[in-house]
């Protein structure tokens, strides 16, 4: 059998796997990543072969370098899956010499950022879901005959991803769809009604009916403490007015299956991880810019969907 027809056969088998996965989408929040390569359900890591070892921190360049990733065993031509949901970017190249395995992609989301190399992704941009087909393992044997073929998995911050690849703890029992209190003094995330400047609900008219409110305004007194509605990765600054007024600041949080922008607040920082309920920052002086308005945090989902049900905390349900 030729190498090409073998690849075709493998891909046929693996399409079956992908369909099976699609039929059972994960319903829970996962602390560890999904299977990355068909044929390796436990994300088994490459041991040692004559080219080196696959563990994190293994020697490279005759001991002058260190392996800053982990090598997940994956047969040439096997189907590759997304370890978590996130945004794709790339191509990510490792060798920069155009060899047969010099391709890869980055996924950023769900509180993680990882580069997967020696694979050919189905695309280099857009959103991908955990467990969804991401691409195909490239022909590593052609470049390194006899090597244990593998995907090089590298965290964007060069930290060790081993514990995320090999689960030692059970996943969270259930994903919490309800966000924590966003502003001190407003424990139920009460939404701004209508005032001289407009209304606070999602879809409210803006610019004399020419526009629509793409977020929800959570009531928050000037200077009040602001909390993270869910755990995730911070990025920013996020500006709304772009005119440098007293409330032109904000931050994005991505993680736990959500992505939201909180504006008219000053965050404690614009990067790194934050946990649900942790102090995120302070409400800016909105009365200075809009005297008499119901001061509020503008809360906007990154995909512009309606965040109201997440803010409501299940109306009377306990956390
Ligand atoms: Zn590697
Ligand atoms: Zn708003």
Walk me through what this model shows.
The chain has two domains: 3-165, Glucose Permease (Domain IIA), CATH 2.70.70.10; 194-311, Glucose Permease (Domain IIA), CATH 2.70.70. 12% of the residues lie in helices and 30% in strands. The chain is built from five helices and 26 strands. The protein has helices at 3-23, 140-143, 162-165, 286-289, 308-311; strands at residues 48-49, 52-53, 59-60, 65-66, 70-73, 79-81, 86-89, 104-109, 112-117, 119-121, 126-128, 133-137, 150-155, 194-195, 198-199, 205-206, 211-212, 216-219, 225-227, 232-235, 250-255, 258-263, 265-267, 272-274, 279-283, 296-301. Strand 1 and strand 2 (52-53) form a beta hairpin. The protein is elongated. 38% of the residues are buried. The model is unreliable at 3-29, 168-174 and 314-319 (pLDDT under 50). One zinc ion (ZN) binds next to loops.
